[in-house]
Write a structure and sequence with these properties.
The protein is an alpha+beta fold. 50% of the residues lie in helices and 17% in strands. The chain has 7 helices and 6 strands. It has helices spanning 3-13, 21-57, 110-122, 164-192, 197-209, 220-228, 234-248; strands at residues 60-66, 74-80, 84-91, 100-107, 142-148, 153-158. It has a 6-stranded antiparallel β-sheet with strand order 4-3-2-1-5-6, covered by helices on one side. A hairpin with a 7-residue loop joins strand 1 (60-66) and strand 2 (74-80). Helix 4 runs antiparallel to helix 5 (197-209) and helix 5 (197-209) runs parallel beside helix 7 (234-248). The radius of gyration is 28 Å and the shape is globular. The two termini are 53 Å apart.
């Protein structure tokens, strides 16, 4: 029986009869000191656990891409440990349009959320260099991965990485961004250029079927508005509906 257990048992069973007052006083003094020692050891352990839990709950991963002369030239995707995601880009809707800031928020599927944080862990949370250093690899934009929580704050820039987990993260974030870009353009076309919806949805459907898009549920509200709009031709509404059904029937984390 541990010292704490003994004290609790004593309180439950009633006072312990101490025949020798001197020895009894020494005993309870020892008990008091023992309780203080146990408490002193427990507080740091509890503090460490709280700190660890807080760090895990506040963990955030951000992927940023800057690629001049592309559309968008810049975007960022942030995902926190709960799966809440924020997408932001500076892009043009048409060639001659002015660049505008577009933002969207959504919930990442459980499967992809787990993959993102597991890959980050395997990549040592992007501590140190992750760029391959191979100057013969074609430039595909400056990419930045960052990880922040209550204990770490790491940021790494790269064009191409030889770290497998970084490549996996890059592909997933780019596929997610591709989906959000379709959502941005579809929302604009639905409001101002309905005739452009058919070709856009054809391209989106083809990329979705080839596995080049991820987290289609993020743009389901835009697709649903197209489906519900009777002023849109039936073939376009049918394509939008098919994309919604593809997402609802997709495996978790697709």
């Amino acid at each position: 029986m541990t010292l704490v257990s003994f004290i609790l048992a004593s309180l439950i069973r009633g006072p312990i009869l101490i025949r020798n007052p001197v020895r009894g006083t020494s005993f309870w003094r020892a008990v008091g000191m023992g309780v203080l020692a146990v408490t002193a050891m427990s507080v740091p352990l509890m503090s460490q656990q709280v700190t660890s839990d807080r760090a895990a709950s506040t963990a955030v991963i951000t992927f940023t891409l800057d690629f001049p002369h592309s559309n968008p030239e810049h975007y960022s995707m942030t995902v926190d440990k709960t799966g809440h995601a924020r997408y932001e880009c500076a892009a043009k809707v048409t060639e001659d349009a002015e660049e505008q800031i577009y933002r969207a928020e959504f919930e990442v599927s459980a499967g992809n959320r787990e993959r993102i944080f597991e890959w980050a862990k395997q990549a040592h949370y992007f501590a140190g260099r992750i760029d391959s250093g191979n100057r013969k690899v074609a430039f595909t934009g400056t990419k930045i991965l960052s990880y922040q929580d209550g204990q770490r704050s790491n940021t790494a820039s790269y064009n191409y990485s030889s770290v497998e987990e970084v490549r996996e993260l890059t592909a997933l974030f780019q596929n997610m961004a591709g989906t959000l870009e379709y959502g941005r353009r579809l929302a604009y076309y639905h409001l101002y250029q309905k005739l452009a919806l058919d070709e856009e949805l054809k391209r989106m459907e083809a990329q979705a079927k080839s596995g080049e898009l991820s987290e289609i549920q993020a743009v389901v509200p835009v697709l649903q508005k197209i489906v519900d709009d009777t002023s849109v031709i039936n073939v376009v509404r049918a394509r939008a509906k098919e994309l919604i059904e593809m997402e609802s029937g997709a495996p978790a984390g697709h």
